[in-house]
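Bug #77: duplicate submission created two jobs. Keeping one. Sequence:
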Amino acid sequence: MPELRKDPLNRRWVIISSERAARPTDFKLETVPVNDIDKCPFCEGRETQTPPEIFAFRRPGTAPNTPGWRVRVVSNKFPALRIEGDTERTNVGIFSRMDGVGAHEVIVETTEHHSHLGLLPVDQLADVIRAYLNRYRDLKGDPRFEYALLFRNHGRTAGASLSHPHSQLIALPVVPKRAREELEAAERYFGRQGQCIYCAMLTQEEDARERVVWQNEHFIVLEPYASRFPFETWILPKVHQADFGSLAPELEVPLAQSLRETLYRLHTCLNNPPYNFIVHTSPYRNGTAHAYHWHIEIIPRLTQVAGFEWGSGFYINTVPPEDAARYLREVTSDLETILPRVEGVRVHGEVGD
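Kept job's structure:
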C-alpha cells in the first residue's frame, strides 16, 4: 500500500509508492559517458583551451597551465555570474535587481577522461576534496559573497555538457532560497527541541539501521526517510558541524572514502546512472552553527518530475528508501585492490596567473 511520509526537516510530504516498487534494473538510463574526448578542453595537454589556472595539485617542477596536474581549477568559460560588479540593489516599484556578481569555477577532478569520482583511488579523491576546500575558503574572503554552492553534474540528463570528470563551485551574493529554507527549518527544530535536527536524525538512523548504507568512524551514508527520488543518498559527518569549510585536515581522507564508496555503489547498482550531488552548508556569514549540519546530497536522475509534482509540491518515489539502502549494501566493494593507486607526490597550491 502507498505511504505518505513527512520530511522532518522541511515538512514536505513524499509519496512512497510501494505498489509501483521498482528494482535497480527497472530504470532505463542513458549511456554515460558521452564520447567527446576528441574535443574535450579538460584533458591533459589542452590547458590553453581553458581560462588560466586558479589552483592545482601538480607534479614538482611543472608550471601552471601545462601538463603535469592531478586536480585543476579554472574559471568557467561561460560563467553564470561574473566577478566584476557590486551588490547594491535597486528597486523599480515591486521589482528588485542587482548586478550578476559572483564567481563560477570548475574543478577538473582527474586527467582520466572516462573515469569518475566513484572509480578513482581514495588519495586522488582526497585531493579533489582539498581543492574544494581551498576554493570554498578562498572565496569566503570576498565580502560580496554570502554563499558558495558546490555541485557536480554527472551525465547529460543531469546537466553535464562535458563528460570529463568535473565539479563546479558558484559563489553567490545572496543565500539561495532552498538553503535558506533548510536553515530556517533547522532553527525551528532547535528552538523546539534544543538540538540539531540532523544530529537527532543520525542517532535515530544509527539505531534503526534500516536506511544506513555504509559508515566509517567519521561519516555515515544513508537513504533519507522521506526520499524524494529513488536512491536519493546523503553523506553526513557524525560530529556536529555546520560549515563544510571547517572540515579538519584529518577528515579529508575519511570523507573521500565515504564519497567514493557511495558513488561506487550507485555506479555498480544502477549501471553508472546520471546524478547530481550538492554540498549543503551554512552561509559564509550566518549564525546557524548551533542548528545546522552540513551534508552531501546525491540524486540519481532515474525519474522525471512531471505535472503532479510541479502542481502539488509532492514527490512520488517508487523505491522505498529501505529497499534502496538494502540494494546498495549488497554491492561488494574492495576498491583498494580493484583500483590502482595513483603514483606521484601531491603538491599543494600551485597557483596560476
